[in-house]
Amino acid sequence: MAVLLDTATLAPRDRRDALITTMREAAGVTRVDVEDDEPVRARVDLWTFGSASILRAESTGFANVRTAKAARAASGEHIAIGVHESGVARYQAGTTLRMVPAGEILVVDVSRPFTFGWRGFGAAQSLNTWTEDLALPADLVRRAGPRLRSSPLYGLFSRHVLDITRNADLLSNSPAAGMLGAASVELARALIATAVDDVACTRDIVEQTLIVQVRAYVRQHLRDPDLGPGTIAAALAISPRHLHRVCANANLRLEQWIIACRLEQAKAELVHPGSRHRSIGTISRRWGFKDQTHFTRRFRLAFGMLPSEWRRT
After folding, report:
1. What is the average per-residue pLDDT within 231-260?
2. If you average pLDDT over every residue of the chain, what do you get?
3. Per-residue pLDDT tens for 162-179?
4. Buried b (16+ CB within 10 A) or exposed e, 41-62
5. Rounded distance, CA 40 to CA 19, Å?
């Protein structure tokens, strides 16, 4: 867990600026407007679950604002699927304004212009993930947003996020944290898909969900030297032919992507202070390369230098 902010540890004069800075960094917003009707009180926590995260904020009144200019300059796109906990929030995207009571689920495309906040004291938590990992068409996500209550998974998703948040300290430190994050994203995808009555789109989402499962499985097993299409297909209970077709439809060159992921992890470990005592061969084997010569050749092809040169720089 990372406690991003706890105003109880700060002098009263520093709390307003601390809340503004924390919310800007945690929510990726342009501006934070803070109510001055009462002394600022806030706590913001962040837990990481693989490529997903849970963010919880409780505070006196504020509003997060992301402008169109900032949205255009964003380096990446991600989605927050929030469960409002207490108070009544106000969410505006374009000309659409929604009041969000406690217990309501809200989908926010954080890479688009929006305003979100509440008056008085309130709290909310959200599952945050990259748009790529959610693997849903942007148009479908927008159409599903106002219709989430029609999904039979509405209550299940709400309880899931609340339960994770209550036990987040324990769960985020578990070896299964990455799998829990991947499962949470899959549940979010199913929630959004079942809120939209589109059979053809639902079939596409089944394939997209499978691709996300493939990606999650690969990330969790990069160190396994035998990781490949056969082991992945067996783990996901599908045929290698089905796996090949799904990857081809998603323009995913599976074996090349596995190598690229391994190279990125090895590259990071080569310069990590905690790995100074490990040889290049040891690090290459730790990331699934059986042969150091093959690793060196692929590393140079990918990054334009030898592993030893990268380590020296």
Report:
1. 89
2. 88
3. 999 999 998 998 888 888
4. ebbbbbbbbbbbbbbbbbbbbb
5. 8
Question: How far is the C-alpha of 112 from the C-alpha of 94, rounded, in Å?
Answer: 9
Confirm if 78 and 97 have CB atoms less than 8 A apart.
Answer: no
Tally Cβ neighbours within 10 Å of residue 73.
9
- Nearest-angstrom CA–CA distance, 16 and 35: 9
19 within 8 A of 5, measured Cβ to Cβ: yes
Q: Which amino acid is at 242?
A: H
If one counts every other C-beta atom within 10 angstroms of the C-beta of residue 152, the result is 10
Alpha helices by DSSP H, listed for the chain, are: 12-27, 68-72, 131-134, 138-144, 154-166, 168-172, 177-194, 199-220, 229-235, 240-249, 254-270, 280-286, 292-303, 307-312
Strand, helix or coil for residue 131: helix
With H, G, I as helix, E, B as strand and everything else as coil, classify residue 286. helix
| The two three-digit tokens of residue 98, written as one number | 């929604």
pLDDT at 61 over 70: yes
CA distance 126 to 128: 6
Give backbone dihedrals phi and psi of 15, rounded to 5 degrees, phi first: -70, -40
d(CA 238, CA 312): 44
Collapse the DSSP code of 224 into the 3-class scheme (helix H, G, I; strand E, B; otherwise coil) and give the result: coil
β-sheet with 89-93: strand ranges across: 31-34, 62-66, 114-118, 89-93, 96-100
What does the block give as tokens for 3? 């406690």
Whether the Cβ atoms of residue 273 and residue 311 lie closer than 8 Å to each other:
no
